[in-house]
Task: inverse folding
């Protein structure tokens, strides 16, 4: 056809067909039901936020990755003068709104805007897509879902404990074997203070992380490159030499971290692990002193989950932030939250074949269509089967049986009900099991029993 | 706080808090479960579509209402020359993507793009937000959800019958008293042909619609204004004089509509109503010859649903389109679908107080926090209650009882479990019923029985 463009979708975005949807919904439903069991309530925020809400919250790189919405109408005239030659600056003349980049900033905005309606501590979850103009690559998309669960308005460590319980429950329900890594931003700050380089917290954690891979000598060389003095590097050696299990490491740290913040971090981690052990959670949890995600953001606990049986980065991240709503003029509200990476969880479950058989299934029964008077009987049979809780299709045309069976086959529908003239007159049906290729004529109620 | 902007969201968009979310989910879940019962499968498409997919599909007005995404990066340089002074034209130089405007065009695009994976007839549903840069007003939003259910790849009227069954099931399940209005585009075309004014189909249906309100004389005057000749107006009089119940109207039309398309329309409507009567659906259905929605789009049946007990426009619309995928180069695929207006359904249910009590509820149980050793016991009690299927919160801090009770009260949580030292030592709990203000000390299993 002339002039017709082969349809496509923007790069980095995806269509989800029925099978993918059923599997994705299985993940979302599982996560959601655990959230609910712990008393978290759902909220949703608009896809578009004012750019004043979004800009400056994700760093310069984040600002660039925001999808901006062109103002409606005559945006050039409304720009109030010629456009700046710089695209970043011109964008702000012709765009006032952007697509949400994560669920955290909209949540902070929500809490401040609705503070008078909220009973604190506020426990909410939010499962919605976010958009980032990232370079698309394998496993990284420009539209993807986040599943966030947060509690704000309490600095009690019980909130962290509860999130750990949720992690245990969700991954147990999904059947994914995981390890939850925990660290604390205060310990990292304490380390940096202990070596006299409070601004080099990230470099120090990266160094600890690389120790196993590149060895002490190379780590020290790298630190020197990053600008740490010989003295600072020397002060770091006891930290790099940390050995043993969690308790032993914490004991050693207790000697090394003498600042208030460092000691507070050790205390928080010890308390959290104490609860985890007392509750006997069915979850592998470890202290990972190299865990440093979202450093400029978190102020206490830091969480990350990795799947154990396959190599797919992090499938969950989170932590405590002490002043999330401060950016919107409501200081002093501490919160802690985690975000489940639904896309990566999907990838893990697909790779390890963890989706239950029943997920992604199709219609229970196809009622074949013999046309004429039999058509109405087919509709009646279908209606009765639906009332029994089955999902039922009637083939819309009295096509050849081969075509109708072919449809059932392609859709993976196991049972086909045949009700032609004989069955209609006898007010029964013939049930064909596509799996065993057997068929028998029986009453509707017997058929229901067999199918269920 | 200096420099802090009071947070807000773009006009025409909304935040949904826990109560609204629970109610909205109740609507979506009800609709979804009916769709599933009829064998429709979910799909989702990206929020962003290429503008080539969207432009020209919704008329000039629609093109203006599309939200366009500013290209990422240095869009001015990539524009390949100075921007056109006309904003509409300049937009196309700096924007390649737009937010989806409805679910129908993305669905058509999906079918064409994935045709090799699809078993036809393809029965899909899709529940996602759409965006329109409409002037915001009461009940009209710039972001709102559509719930579409369509079958493509069959021109059998059984598809229409099934959609009518779905309408009946959904509104019965939601408890909304509705009337389904049905018309057929072919009848409207036949009328216009019969009066010799095939291009005046809309004016004619509007005229019929106004007959009751403004009277025959005024209607005829209006038609003359619209450019119908005296002859044409005279030829229309038998149609304006149509009287009686559905069958009587159809009988009269049979005399008036002599063109092939007109007769086909009458036959389709008669067949559809025949099935509806035979199936004995629990639904008020009427033939409405003035129904003319989406004329440039639909080719057969047209559907619209109104709630009967309150004045809130249409809460569902739909119809048959014979060449939806033709715009994307896949002609000859007939489809029929309906779209539930979730926002209006929400408004109807709110106004008529149709939401069940249990919807919008909160956590089942709050376990009060007495601190110290009792805290761990509270966590254990909560974990056990959750295993019984209850949703349970532990108050995260050992705050004053007044504060904890106030939280339960504000959240509308009915049961508060008190487990202090006495209860911990006796391994029981005290259950407070906030509704009756009574409390009793009992075993955990007795408490579960009482709560459930």
Result:
């Amino acid at each position: 056809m002339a002039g017709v463009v082969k349809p496509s979708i923007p790069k980095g975005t995806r269509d989800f067909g029925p099978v993918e949807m059923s599997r994705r919904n299985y993940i979302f439903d599982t996560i959601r039901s655990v959230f609910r069991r712990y008393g978290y309530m759902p909220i949703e925020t608009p896809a578009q936020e004012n750019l004043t809400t979004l800009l400056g919250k994700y760093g310069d790189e984040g600002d660039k990755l925001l999808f901006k919405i062109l103002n409606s109408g005559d945006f050039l005239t409304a720009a109030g003068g010629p456009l700046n030659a710089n695209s970043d600056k011109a964008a702000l003349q012709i765009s006032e709104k952007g697509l949400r980049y994560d669920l955290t900033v909209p949540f902070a905005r929500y809490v401040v805007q609705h503070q008078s309606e909220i009973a604190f501590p506020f426990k909410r979850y939010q499962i919605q897509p976010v958009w980032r103009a990232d370079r698309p690559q394998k496993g990284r998309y420009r539209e993807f879902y986040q599943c966030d669960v947060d509690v704000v308005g309490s600095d009690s460590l019980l909130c962290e404990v509860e999130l750990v319980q949720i992690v245990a429950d969700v991954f147990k329900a999904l059947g994914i074997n995981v390890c939850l890594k925990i660290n604390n931003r205060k310990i990292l700050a304490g380390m940096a203070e202990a070596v006299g380089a409070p601004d080099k917290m990230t470099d120090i954690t990266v160094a600890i992380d690389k120790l196993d891979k590149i060895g002490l000598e190379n780590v020290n060389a790298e630190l020197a490159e990053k600008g740490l003095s010989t003295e600072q590097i020397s002060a770091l050696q006891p930290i790099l030499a940390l050995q043993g299990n969690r308790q032993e490491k914490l004991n050693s740290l207790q000697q090394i971290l003498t600042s208030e913040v460092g000691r507070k971090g050790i205390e928080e981690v010890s308390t959290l692990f104490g609860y985890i052990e007392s509750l006997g959670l069915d979850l592998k949890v470890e202290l990972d002193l190299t865990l440093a995600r979202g450093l400029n953001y978190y102020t206490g606990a830091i969480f990350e989950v990795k799947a154990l049986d396959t190599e797919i980065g992090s499938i969950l991240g989170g932590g405590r932030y002490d002043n999330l709503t401060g950016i919107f003029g409501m200081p002093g509200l501490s919160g802690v939250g985690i975000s489940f990476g639904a896309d990566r969880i999907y990838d893990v479950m697909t790779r390890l074949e963890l989706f239950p058989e029943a997920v992604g299934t199709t219609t229970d029964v196809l009622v074949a269509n013999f046309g004429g008077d039999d058509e109405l009987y087919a509709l009646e049979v279908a209606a009765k089967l639906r009332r029994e809780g089955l999902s039922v299709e009637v083939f819309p045309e009295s096509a050849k049986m081969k075509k109708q069976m072919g449809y059932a086959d392609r859709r993976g529908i196991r049972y086909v009900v045949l009700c032609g003239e004989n069955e209609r007159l006898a007010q029964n049906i013939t049930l064909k099991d596509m799996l065993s290729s057997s068929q028998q004529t029986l009453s509707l109620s017997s058929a229901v029993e067999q199918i269920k």
Remarks:
- Chain A touches chain B through 107 residues (CB under 8 Å).
